[in-house]
Amino acid sequence: MMGALFGIIQWTEDCRRSMYPPSGPTYRGPVPWYTVNLDLPPYKRWHELMADKAPALRIIVNSLKNLVNAFVPSGKVMQIVDQKLPGLLGPLPSPFEEEMKGIAAVTEIPLGEIILFNIFYEFFTICTSIVTEDKEGHLLHGRNMDFGVFLGWNINNNSWVITEELKPLTVNLDFQRNNKTVFKATGFAGYVGMLTGFRPGLFSLTINERFAMNGGYMGVLEWILGKKDATWIGFLTRSVLENSTSYEETKNILTKTKILAPAYFILGGNQSGEGCVITRDRKVSLDVYELNPKQGRWYVIQTNYDRWRNPFFLDDRRTTTKICLNQTTQEKISLPTIYDVLSTKPVLNKLTIFTALMDVTRGQFETYLRDCPDPCIGW
């Protein structure tokens, strides 16, 4: 593993060109579409999807158990998860608890392990998100979902175990009510929150992890101890995708709601200037950084470091993203050229599961599974 991180690493490469439509060694394949019918009772909404994906979910849950047991060999932690986690957490917000119970029933995986899978964001996500505005005021939103750092390295094929096991679980979801799309999202089968999605014609939203001492584990601990005034990240974003009716309303909610873990919310709208990165502590918003095309700020980007701080020297995806966007120019920005930027190492890395491209105004939502062939940075 250390060789992958600190050996002959190609820290940066020339900005990629003409990578779209996706093909070649960095493209794993398309992401399948499923419909989630919001008119069904929460317990039944995920049955069709989970019937397909239960074997893949069992594989990743077993990997998580093996990792936990490697740290605590007695097996007591997983015993607590299986027997006591649902009780420790107490009732989770509706409809999420019922949805998770339905997933547990279909997959025959203990509810505690389904809940553990659903609180993962609070601990292990790393990502790159971009919102751009072209010369006509048209907004585009792209992201790389990177996940699985430190969760087991496979020395046989130079890959992160959990990252690889999440790829078969990656699904595009069309959430419908009355046979009409409410919102679209890319998620992981078994995970009921949403980290990447859009409401067609209204807004697009991605979340990136924010590292902080007062991190997600503190929020989870407070919740277990009875302080339940904060919202789970994936539940909050799923809720705004389902219910919010404008960019401004969504920005207001994401800025003000207490959350369990620090985060960056990257939000795009449908009109000129509607794009921002909201830097969140668990209880307050620290910064809202917005598009301002009149002042030449035609894009906002976010990796996993506060914009006013230098990124970790081994993980400077931010500089590469900026260089490639500037080389692309505002005149030539498009979903294909955003895909090029997100295909440039180290923005593309061993943790990258998928690349998502969103055009809210035109209703385009595309997701592609990714690979990062060697030489490739470990995160």
UniProtKB/TrEMBL annotation:
The active site is at C127 (nucleophile). This is Acid ceramidase. Its main location: other. It comes from Trichechus manatus latirostris (Florida manatee). InterPro entries: Acid_ceramidase-like, Acid_ceramidase_N, CBAH/NAAA_C. Heterodimer. Residues 29-89 form the Acid ceramidase N-terminal domain. The gene is ASAH1. Residues 127-318, 321-368 form the Choloylglycine hydrolase/NAAA C-terminal domain. It catalyses: an N-acylsphing-4-enine + H2O = sphing-4-enine + a fatty acid. Its EC number is 3.5.1.23. One of its GO terms (cellular component) is extracellular region. GO terms for biological process: fatty acid metabolic process; sphingolipid metabolic process.
